[in-house]
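Reviewers of the previous submission asked for a worked example of the structure-prediction workflow described in the proposal, so we include one complete record here. The input consisted solely of the amino acid sequence. No template or homolog information was supplied to the procedure at any stage.
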Amino acid sequence: MSQGNQSILSPQGIRIFYRSNLPSSPKAVMIVSHGY
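From that input alone, the workflow returned the following structure tokens.
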């Protein structure tokens, strides 16, 4: 399932994932959740 998500998230989605790692970007987590 991870592979399919990566395809839909696109390169921009990867950047959001990295931001989600930072506790200073709570909004990024919301965006990632939507991608799922």
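The mean pLDDT is 54. We consider this example representative of the routine output the project will generate in years two and three.
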